[in-house]
Amino acid sequence: SLVVLVFVLSTVSVGFAAVDETSPSVVRAKALGILKGDEKGNLNLDKPITRAEAITLIVRILGLEKSADLMKGQTQFKDVPATHWATGYINLGFGQGIINGYPDGTFKPNNNVTYAEVAKMLLYAMNYGVTVEGTPWPAGVMGKADDLGIFEGVNAVPNVPALRGDVVEIIDNCLTIKHLKQIGYGDLKQYIEGDETFLSKMKVKELKDYTVTKIAKVDSKLDADEVVLEKGAEKGIYKLIADVNPEAIFGLKVDAWVNDDDQIFFVNVKTKDEDKLIDTVVIADSNLADDELYLKNQDDDYEVADNATLYVNFEPVDVEELEDYDTLYGRIVLDKGEIVFANLFSFEGKGFVTKVEDDVIEYVDLVTADDEELELDDYDEIYVYNKDFTAAKVEDIDEDSLIYYWENDDDELFIIVAGEKVTGEVEKLKADRLTVDGKTYKKAGDAVVTLDNGDSYKVWAGLNDVSDLTDEEVTLILDYNGEIAVVLADAETTSDTIYGIVTYAKLDKTGVVSVFTKDGKVVDYTAEKRTDVADLVDDENYFGTVDGTGQNALKYAIIGFQLNSDGEIAEGTIAPIIEVNGDTVVQTVYGKTLNKAADKDYVYVGTTDSSSNRYYITKDTVIMKALNSDGELDPAVISYDDLVEMSLTSEKAVVIGDAGKNAKMIVFLEPDFEGIKDDIYFGVVVDSPWKVGSNYVATIDVAGEGEKEFTVANRVYFDKGTLIAFKLNSKNKAEWIVYDDINNDPADVLNDGDDNKVDEAYIIVDTVKAVDGSFIETDDEGTFKVASDAVIYNIKYDGSKWVLGDKIRLSKIDKGDEVSLLLNKDGIVKAIVVRYAEDLQKAQQ
């Protein structure tokens, strides 16, 4: 078996060392003075280590470097001259029985040392050499090293040259191994496990059973990497250089290893796992009266000790002050079943990350299901933690992560990142839980659902929001409590009901209805029961006759129905029928004005937006307009994307669906309702026209579409940096509507009475007063909503003229800057060019 072991180990491949200069083992080795690098300071962690270098590291961890200095000079090895840099280490290592030479009297100091040889040196340095004497080489050494955990995290192949980084990792694994101790002599000699370790031999100060009572976040006198350790009356400030962040050990009992510079380079947490909890504190007044807190994951009440230390967002609080919060999340430390410490967070925002780009995190708010943005460059410092308070980085925030954040008065942002994924088939569901692949998961307090694979989200408020998920494949995103925060599915309601606008009806031997459907076509349907369509037919038995006054009677209906197996309108399935005659809506599902904000996926009734009067728009909602500009019946389909983009107020509209849920159909009845996306483009010219054949082509960054090339009808109006609104003519060439050239005034626009305004678009120029979220306020012109897809560029003064600068975000515009705003007919800003205040001053000079 030993032969087999040697064979297997010798055939394992070896790669580069997994450690780098930021690895914990390297940080500790440097702090201890073990690892010093070459004459240029290079650690060369990916290079093989020589025999001389290996014994040097081992002598250092034995705490014998000063002794090695005294032993410099002549060695007994003929190939190691007295002038060799490692003579002291070699002499000491040989004297301690850690190394031997070769039979020919050489040491070969510059030869690469193998993993097996490194292991042998360390075993003899810890007095374990007696346990491998007489065993087959190298199997005996490798086996004992493996028993002691020396090779943990290292791909150690016995006869392969060891890499420096791996040797540092191997030594790090040995730091706390207790060495063997000889007792007795002669025939009574034996070895037992002693108390000494490499750490103790280096005379490293060991602080046992100390508590981390202060970190920089709660004590401004401390540097960011400093902590306070206390044990009874003993107290000290130490710099933390170990592979742990201060927040992760705040409030915990630890053993700490400290070097001569009062740097903690090694930490061992002593608080028992059952006493250090990461949990959600649910505040209840009835509990607070007895100084008790309910911990959600533990599902139990815990008494708060009289001398407990409590923090909320790194501010000290008394237990009574917790009444100001609903829920808190963080670390709780118990002692004898009582809460003695808590470091808790109260979050200001929580969301599901849908996009991370540059310094902006886009997310779906878990409370409202609205699309939001978190602009990281608005903050002076950003601290990111995993859900167990270990350190993370902004780069760790990926799409499909969950973020929970708050900010303090010093413009510092604190983010907890969570988001474990569970994928499987929904087997059971209730209003507040889903069973996926045999395991049941509870809904979090705030959760959202998408049934169209992320195109739209809605708040998970009850059973109806998840009722279509049975037998569907879903992905659950779990919050820091392991509860469902997000449900991702592609299972939008697929109702068999057909919705449309009736353009003609006939009651003859059969009932026939012509319906304009969501596909944009008029389809004739025959009713299974003739009389089911009787309400759609007037006295003369066809749709749209002359009424009793002799005038044309505009009559149409909004309808929903289902088909039977023969493709006929199934008996009794027509509902609802909303008949319209002239300007009168005979029946509606609400009695107030219909409103919608731009870029929202719902409409709402009345003046106040609330979840109870919303109708959510999904990809399956049938959206139409009924009339053309002359008020004649001329149905047209409105796309989901176009309606979501719109901002509107409609006095005449019909919604089929239940308030607070998805709209099944929306029909706008105003003759002048422009629901179909107009072919107007808004943007900034980013590259001046160049000639292609007989035409000129320009590159334009278009709102909502990005950079595209367009053939232009007149290149004069498409210079680089121009803020422009344009249409495509019958020859598919871009013709400007309004424009603002960098070096000209916006009065250079086609107009219909105003200096800078046309029906479809207009430009205003003003000085910025404030930017608040997605709104920009100017000194003289007022406040304007900026579309989420607006194109924004700065233009810079180069000393003689204005030139196009960089594409920027709205947050980069500040008070005092001059902006040219390109607005659509609804007053929504679709493109901006900005002259920064400092450039304006240069231009004036």
Write the layout of secondary structure elements.
Elements: H1 2-11, H2 24-31, H3 51-61, H4 65-70, H5 87-95, H6 115-125, H7 139-148, H8 164-174, E1 180-183, E2 190-193, H9 198-201, E3 205-215, E4 226-231, E5 234-240, H10 246-249, E6 253-258, E7 263-269, E8 276-282, H11 285-288, E9 292-295, E10 300-312, E11 315-317, E12 327-335, E13 338-345, E14 349-357, E15 360-365, E16 371-375, E17 381-386, E18 391-392, E19 402-407, E20 412-418, E21 420-430, E22 433-436, E23 439-450, E24 458-459, E25 473-478, E26 484-489, E27 498-507, E28 511-517, E29 522-526, E30 555-561, E31 578-581, E32 584-585, E33 594-596, E34 602-605, E35 614-616, E36 622-627, E37 633-637, H12 640-645, E38 648-650, E39 653-657, E40 663-668, E41 680-692, E42 695-702, E43 706-712, E44 723-728, E45 734-740, E46 761-772, E47 775-778, E48 782-797, E49 802-807, E50 818-824, E51 829-835, H13 837-844
Parallel strand pairs: 5-7, 10-13, 17-20, 23-26, 36-40, 48-51
Antiparallel strand pairs: 1-2, 3-4, 3-6, 4-5, 6-7, 8-9, 8-12, 9-10, 10-11, 12-13, 14-15, 14-19, 15-16, 17-18, 19-20, 21-22, 21-25, 22-23, 23-24, 25-26, 27-28, 27-30, 28-29, 30-31, 31-32, 33-34, 33-38, 34-35, 36-37, 39-40, 41-42, 41-44, 42-43, 44-45, 46-47, 46-50, 47-48, 48-49, 50-51
